[in-house]
Specification:
With about 130 residues, the chain is α+β, with helices and mostly antiparallel strands. It contains two helices and eight strands, in the order αββββββββα. Strands 1, 2, 3, 4, 5, 6, 7 and 8 form an eight-stranded antiparallel β-sheet that branches.
Length: about 130
Amino acid sequence: MNSKWLMSLLLVVSCGHAGAEWVKVSSNESSTFYMDTSISKKVGANVMIWVVRDHASVQYGESGPYLSSKDQIEVDCGGRRIRRIYSSDHPKHMGEGKFVHSEHGPMSWNDASRGTVVQRIVNIACAHG
């Protein structure tokens, strides 16, 4: 029974953002940031979200070129901070195509400084979560 539950959980995590409803959060000269507002699962008092960083030009990493990055982020609404749980780089825009590189976290916490993309992500995630 536990293995069926684990396989179901892995399927949801790996495919859960495939039909994402991406909403533009912010942009600058190098990237546009989108957040999936349809997925906001609570983990304790925190909210889990997906963010896509769509790059304006090709980025080059250890594993090859990529045009976008997809991140699963944990948002601490009380502490006004975020940390990446998972990140993958993709050869096409909007996280499309088989990933060329991935990292599993959790990474360190980053504060939502005033006027930053991180602050906008925290505000939106916490309003919907």
